[in-house]
Specification:
Length: about 425
């Protein structure tokens, strides 16, 4: 079982290049199969979720050609099945985008109920509500969702909750529907806008992405495109917090600073310095972290996918902080692991009450999910002594070369898979 071993306590400095957004890429790959022409996607991150989705579309007959590590050519003209294998689906959340894409293109889709991080109950009722509103019949049998329609007809759809996945999925299903679809109370995340931009570059007619109301004017066909995915807001935010927790000085490159505003403002509140440039941000940690209060919210609020990472910084702050998780009910599973490292955190309902401690101490911990895993690495970087983070397959779902990027900033971290590797690391770091 692969693990990260970390010797903490080093101030990390230098610059790091951020890759394409995982969550935008996943929807964009699904969108790419909606035309029979070739789509070239650039700036794709080489992460497990993306690779699983590429295998899933190959599994139904699409041709996927890797141009280089971060660029693929996809051709959906050879798709021979609208039923996606459970083996792929169970691994990733975003497999649900194949429902919207296949339904939109072939008026029929069969996809297993999705997997992804176990951070809450994660219903998909809003996706289904949207598909039904467009005229599809949707049933769930034996763990599979089956959606089919004679024709899809544009509708006014009000979302009961703000959902990134449902907003994008309805956009995908509506893009070649007849007439106009208005999605009200839509999610405004940067990746919603990116997917709309990508679809528009394929000939779609989508307006309003990034606002509460998205209008999709159905078109009869989509064509090929070349599209470059936006930078990953969460990978960028994670490295910004690496600077905070190691009291380092890190320039995070290839980002859109506007997408990072909620993260930047919390870093300023806790005493860090943030300099913004056109496509990079420089974060300098401060000797003493100031306590604060955080509530996760849909964009432009503080992202739930950054909640575990800010928690590590606040667990090192002077005074008592609170974090209220308002999106997912089970996103504090890392707290027990952080306690092993000396953190003082109490969870009451959807709020974590955090009393800052002076120093974490290294321990053996286990990543319960993707962002929680990244947060435990951050804690290990800040801790005194050795930390072993187990189950790093979760981290690799969404971070490309996480350990390599951290090493380039001066971190002492290695991926290890045996006791022999651990001993080698110990000898190396002294
Ligand atoms: C692959 C992907 O892009 N994952 C992201 C996506 O997940 P995901 O698309 O699953 O998250 P949503 O935005 O849909 O979920 C937001 C809230 O709405 C609820 N809900 C959602 C759909 C639905 O049909 N019914 C319902 O009640 C969810 O339980 C949750 O409480 O957005 C989340 C919120 O920014 C991020 O944490 C995930 O990283
Ligand atoms: C929760 C996440 O991913 P997913 O929705 O794919 O489980 C995430 O990216 O933090």
């Amino acid at each position: 079982m692969d693990q990260y071993i970390i010797k903490g306590g080093k101030m990390l400095t230098g610059s790091v290049e951020i890759g394409g957004a995982k969550n935008a890429s996943l929807a964009i790959i699904a969108a790419a199969i909606m035309t029979d022409e070739t789509v070239i996607i650039e700036n794709l991150p080489d992460v497990e979720d993306v690779n699983v989705l590429l295998q899933a579309i190959q599994g139904i007959g699409a041709v996927v050609e890797r141009v280089d590590r971060h660029c693929v050519k996809i051709n959906g003209s050879t798709i021979s099945s609208v039923s996606v294998d459970y083996e792929y689906i169970k691994k990733i959340r975003a497999s649900y985008y194949l429902l919207g894409a296949l339904l939109g293109k072939y008026k029929m889709a069969q996809v297993a109920l999705p997997g992804g991080c176990n951070i809450g109950s994660r219903p998909i009722d809003q996706h289904i509500k949207g598909f039904k509103a467009l005229g599809a019949e949707v049933t769930i049998e034996h763990g599979m969702i089956l959606a089919k329609a004679g024709t899809l007809q544009g509708k006014h759809i009000y979302m009961d909750v703000v959902s990134v996945g449902a907003t994008i999925n309805i956009m995908l299903a509506a893009v070649m529907a007849e007439g106009i679809t208005d999605i009200e109370n839509a999610a405004k995340e940067p990746h919603v806008v990116d997917v709309a931009n990508m679809l528009n570059s394929m000939g779609a007619n989508i307006k309003g992405a990034g606002t509460d109301v998205i209008r999709v004017n159905g078109v009869s066909r989509l064509h090929g495109t070349t599209y470059s995915v936006i930078p990953d807001q969460i990978e960028a935010g994670t490295f910004m917090f690496v600077a905070a927790v190691t009291r380092g000085d890190i320039t995070v490159k290839n980002v859109i600073p506007k997408h990072l505003e909620a993260i930047t403002s919390k870093l300023l509140e806790i005493g860090c310095t943030v300099e913004e440039y056109d496509d990079s941000v420089r974060v300098k940690g401060s000797e003493s972290i100031v306590c604060t209060h955080v509530k996760t919210l849909p964009y432009p609020g503080f992202p739930t996918d950054m909640q575990p990472q800010i928690s590590v910084a606040l667990a090192m702050a002077k005074g008592t902080s609170t974090i209220t998780e308002s999106i997912f009910e089970n996103r504090f599973k890392y707290v027990d692991e952080l306690r092993r490292m000396g953190a003082s955190i109490k969870v009451e309902g959807n709020t974590a009450i955090i009393d800052g401690v002076n120093q974490f101490t290294g321990a053996q911990v286990s990543a319960p999910d993707l962002r929680a895993g990244a947060a435990l690495v951050l804690a290990g970087l800040a801790a005194q002594g050795l930390t072993l983070v187990e189950d790093i397959r979760f981290i690799q779902r969404g971070y490309e070369d996480f350990d390599g990027k951290l090493r380039a900033l001066g971190a002492q971290i290695e991926e290890v898979s045996s006791e022999k590797d651990v001993q080698k690391f110990k000898l190396k770091v002294g």
